[in-house]
Write a structure and sequence with these properties.
single chain; alpha/beta; Rossmann fold; 7 strands; about 10% strand
Length: about 375
């Protein structure tokens, strides 16, 4: 794995959403012969969608997709989750793929496609379809309180994988990504990244995750404390931070978020895992958060701190704690309503288009070096 990534390029490649389109959308609300502010926060959502699409009137959302990155975490072996460390993530992946998981049912209800990316599930790859495991970096990760989550080469490869998946979605015509995760122990890992990047101690970011009791919370808090000690020396190197106390799943999501911003693909963040990766991505490109929206608060203290640092206000207040992209999915009808209200003809779906030739927005292959 000799892939290299030049993180410095993202600072210049990520542009701001189109302010002219945002202003035009704000004026269009007035053209609808409605009282100013009559649509409440839908006006804000519609103006954001116009800005990220770079046009007003905007196109009604027609091709949303739930993208779930799956991976296991060594810290789960400490029993920091109510879910089983061995096989728990694999079972959740199977449930999503066979359509029995709530996220699969809601995706069908709201008309969103669903994609699962196995980056580091600790299971035999033969258990899943080829399109799910084709991007796998490794099985599981190390215990971040005592060892590296993954090697630097693996973190870099995972980051590049996330970038490539963002390119896939942009090229397929996806117009909104609802970003989630599948992984037992992932809230502990996310808390470490948020605590390190926000300069807080373990107790300030350690949440209840899957619904743990006080005794397990203390075990989890101690693991986060020890991992924070390992994270702080590498804070200045985002890939090293992801390798040390993140893992392949977190590196892939971070790469996805940044390349989605490069390709002008809007993303709704679901839960503390996506938010932690967004914080890492913000360190790499300060404009990137303008391409994202937060789904909902979950009660995790690390998520609250991350959204404050990212200056993102949740789209709704349903306090969905289960993860799996469900909070982001529940935000989809709000964004669809905002786009339908502002579109010229919302009931004529936009057709997916091929990437523009020549591409003005660089793909992962164009950005990556190495052989």
């Amino acid at each position: 794995m000799d892939t290299t990534v030049d993180l410095d390029t993202f600072a210049s490649l990520v542009e701001r959403p189109d302010d002219d389109a945002r202003r035009a959308a704000s004026e269009r609300w007035l053209e609808l012969d409605q009282p100013r502010g009559g649509f409440g926060r839908l006006e804000e959502y519609g103006s954001w969608l116009a800005a990220v699409q770079g046009r007003s009137p905007l196109r009604a959302l027609s091709s949303p997709k739930v993208v779930l990155f799956a991976g296991d975490h060594g810290v789960a072996s400490l029993g920091v989750s109510r879910l089983p460390a061995q096989g728990g993530t694999a079972r959740r992946v199977h449930a999503v793929l066979n359509g029995s998981a709530p996220v699969a049912k809601l995706a069908r209800r709201f008309g969103a496609e669903l994609r699962v990316v196995d980056v580091a599930v600790d299971a035999d790859p033969e258990q899943f379809p080829a399109e799910v495991v084709q991007h796998r970096i490794r099985r599981g990760s190390g215990r971040i309180d005592v060892e590296e989550a993954v090697s630097l080469a693996e973190a870099t490869a995972a980051f590049a994988t996330g970038m490539a998946i963002a390119d896939d979605e942009a090229d397929l015509g996806t117009d909104l990504v609802l970003l989630g995760d599948l992984g037992v122990g992932s809230t502990a890992v996310a808390a470490v990244l948020v605590g390190a990047l926000c300069g807080t101690d373990a107790a300030a970011v350690c949440g209840r995750g899957s619904g743990i009791d006080d005794q397990v919370w203390m075990v989890k808090c101690a693991a986060i404390r020890d991992a924070l000690r390992r994270a702080r020396p590498v804070l200045g190197d985002q890939l090293a931070l992801l390798a040390t106390t993140g893992g392949a799943q977190f590196a892939a999501i971070t790469g996805f978020l940044l390349q989605a911003a490069v390709r002008k693909l809007p993303v709704v963040l679901d839960g503390v895992v996506a938010a932690a990766c967004a914080l890492v991505a913000q360190r790499i490109s300060f404009r990137a958060p303008e391409w994202w929206r937060a789904a909902a608060p979950t009660g995790e203290p690390a998520l609250t701190k991350a959204y404050d640092r990212l200056t993102l206000t949740p789209l709704h207040e349903e306090k969905i704690t289960t993860g799996e992209g469900i909070g982001a999915l529940l935000a989809l009808p709000l964004l669809q309503a905002a786009s339908d209200a502002l579109a010229v003809d919302p009931f004529t779906p936009a057709r997916p288009t091929a990437p523009k030739e020549p591409p003005r927005l660089p793909t992962a292959l164009e950005l990556l070096g190495g052989a």
